[in-house]
Predict the structure.
Amino acid sequence: MKIYLAARYELHPRMRHCRSELANLGYFVTSRWTEGGHSAIGAPWDAAKFAQDDWDDLRAADCIIFFAEDPRVGIPRGGRHVEFGMAAAWGKRLIVVGYRENVFHYLPQVEFYDTWWDVLQELRAEKVVTT
């Protein structure tokens, strides 16, 4: 299974760690943004390229894992919400970790887990069943 990781951009170092853990389980992460380098958007064409990369990476994935934040904190950026909506519209597997930030995280097809550890345990169990 190919997985897209959606999280606040500043968490890209943590997402690289998550990517490694998923790779150890035999999953492939399509999210190129986790490598960093997108924070210095200086021109509109840079933003357009990064958006297109994310679009293509999400399109290539079978599943999105959305790392939610406490909605009481008020995170100013929200590209991950657009990515979640695109994944839902495209019929991808939807996994939310941590919080339910908006009403769409309550849809019946959304799998919700309190922690990243819980997600890993579920994906590990699925690998055992399918191999």
Notes: The chain has one domain: 2-34+46-130. The domain at 2-34+46-130 is CATH 3.40.50.450 (Rossmann fold). The radius of gyration is 14 Å.
